[in-house]
Amino acid sequence: MVKELKDKIYDYLSNHYYLNLATVSPQGRPMAHTMAYISEGAVVYVTTNKNTRKVQNIMHNPYVAYTVDEDDPDWFDMQALQVEGKATIITDEEKLREIGEIMVAKFPVAADMPPDPDSIMIKIEPEVIYYLDYSVEFGHREQVNL
């Protein structure tokens, strides 16, 4: 049952493009950031400018949460992921190249973007994932701890 749920989560992540990342400022204020992402299993990667508020927040507190969902007006067909995890900045050049290739495969427009020396890659490793599927039953949610 857990393997089946994990497979659904991995498939859901690989077939969506944007997540809504929640961070907390050093002052304790929540912030939400819409970002494109790629995934390897349950681990997601996002890229951003190193001077953004989200990076400052992660440097202060690496615990984050995010959602991935669909914009469907029918509440009874809603499917989504709610994820809690820990973010780290990737510095390993080989890993950066590997993730960059996956990013270009998912987002071909990235291949045409000029290199940005201020761009960094963030890895988010989940600790708990909730898979919402209201087509099963309104409010249906399954949990996986990783």
Strands, helices and their partners?
Blueprint: H1 2-14, E1 18-24, E2 30-36, E3 38-40, E4 43-49, H2 53-60, E5 63-69, E6 79-90, H3 93-106, E7 119-133, E8 141-145
Antiparallel strand pairs: 1-2, 1-5, 3-4, 4-7, 5-6, 6-7, 7-8
Structural commentary:
This protein has 146 residues and is α+β, with helices and mostly antiparallel strands. It has one domain (2-145): Roll (Pnp Oxidase, Chain A), CATH 2.30.110. A hairpin with a 5-residue loop joins strand 1 and strand 2 (30-36). The chain has helices at residues 2-14, 53-60, 93-106; strands at residues 18-24, 30-36, 38-40, 43-49, 63-69, 79-90, 119-133, 141-145.
- What is the mean predicted local confidence, pLDDT? 95
The tally of beta strands, per DSSP, is 8
- The amount of helix comes to 10-25%
**Which shape, going by the Cα principal axes?**
globular
Low-pLDDT segments, ≥5 res: none
Question: From N to C, what is the helix and strand string?
Answer: HEEEEHEEHEE
Organism: Methanosarcina thermophila
InterPro entries: F420H2_bilvrd_red/Heme_oxyg, Pyridox_Oxase_N, Split_barrel_FMN-bd
Pfam families: PNPOx_N
GO molecular function, one term: oxidoreductase activity, acting on the CH-CH group of donors
